Amino acid sequence: EDLGSPFLKEFTVYPNPSSGALTVTIETLGGDAPEMKLKVFSLIGQEMYTETVSPFSGVKRVSLDLTKLPKGIYMIEISDGEKSRIKRISII
Description:
The protein has 92 residues and is mainly β. 0% of the residues lie in helices and 63% in strands. It has no helices and 7 strands. A 4-stranded antiparallel beta sheet has the order 4-3-6-7, with no helix packed on it. A hairpin with a 6-residue loop joins β1 (8-14) and β2 (21-32). The radius of gyration is 13 Å and the shape is globular. The mean pLDDT is 90.
């Protein structure tokens, strides 16, 4: 991750830990964000879920339903194709 030039102002996932019903909040640095990909990976790198986030400006909230996934630790990645940010979540 290139910390020198963040491409997102804010990227939060809550509640964490959760039963799998999550809200992802994405805030851009200003201007229109490009299309982004939101992906959920297991710890061994298996892609469990993917969603395209259409371009937006400002703040966007995305609801995720991961209740069908096995309990455990997952990584949520948001990417614009060049840069990405990752958050670790627990499903209990």
